[in-house]
Amino acid sequence: MRNYIFDFDGTLADSKKCSVLATQEAFKEFGLDVPSSEQIEHFMGIPIEVSFKEMTDYKFTEESFESLLQIFREKYKAFENDTLTVFPNVPEVLNNLKSKGKQLFVVSSKKTNVLLRNLETLKINTYFKDIIGSDNVTNYKPHPEGILKLVKLHHLKKEETVMIGDAIFDLQIAHAAGVASCGVTWGSHKKEKLVKEQPKFLIHEVKQLLVLEECMLNEYSK
């Protein structure tokens, strides 16, 4: 593989605590029933523009929904410095991959400005050739638009490209885009859930990205 496309939340960074706290605080302040951490974790792979409506039966107006999103973004920014961390070995592995001539990208459900801010805070922004946030696409995950946009912009060969993520949505967009998929088991979705999506690769620690070809799914799902 030459081109590595990463999800952000739950793959590069442990943002679970930040996302859960910000979501629960936002729903509480808005006057909605507060979703459980399990609910929030399940939807962490898709944009809040979609997931928030899945976690409540409340009928939003366009204005009221934007208000909820704004509350969440303010809460997230307040929590992120104390709760957002990079997963162990991620910087070293990214550096290693880049030094070997691999092209690294991010496709995230975060808005681009927030994604860039988070990458800079974690000091891993310089490893990536390009990033695609939710505001760079018309269709959110699990639609493959984000991957296809990178393929077109950077003339990537699909057979040399892999999408790496912790959620089933990341594997679904890889399949839809026609690139290889790699599930990681240290994020929001458990191994059993990822295996059902039949990823080409399944890894349990970050350093396995350096020997990806040895991590075919059938070796890890017996």
Written account of the structure:
- With 222 residues, this protein is α/β, with parallel strands linked by helices.
- It has nine helices and eight strands.
- It has helices at residues 16-30, 37-42, 48-54, 62-83, 90-99, 112-121, 145-153, 168-177, 191-195; strands spanning 3-6, 13-14, 85-86, 103-107, 130-132, 161-165, 180-184, 201-203.
- The strands form two sheets. It has a six-stranded parallel sheet, with helices on both faces.
- Helix 1 runs antiparallel to helix 4 (62-83).
- It is globular, with a radius of gyration of 17 Å.
- The model has no long low-confidence stretch (mean pLDDT 94).
What structural class is derived from the secondary structure elements? alpha/beta
Mean pLDDT: 94
Task: Write the element-wise H/E pattern from the N-terminal end onward.
Answer: EEHHHHEHEHEHEHEHE
Shape: globular
Largest sheet: 6 strands, parallel
Stretches where pLDDT falls below 50 for ≥5 residues? none
Helix content: 40-55%
Percent in strands: 5-15%
How large, in whole angstroms, is the Cα Rg? 17 Å
| Count of β-strands | 8
Q: Termini distance?
A: 24 Å
Total helices: the number is: 9
Please give the order of strands in the largest beta sheet: 5-4-1-6-7-8
Which properties best describe this structure?
single chain; 222 residues; alpha/beta; six-stranded parallel β-sheet; two-stranded antiparallel sheet; 9 helices; 8 strands; 42% helix; globular
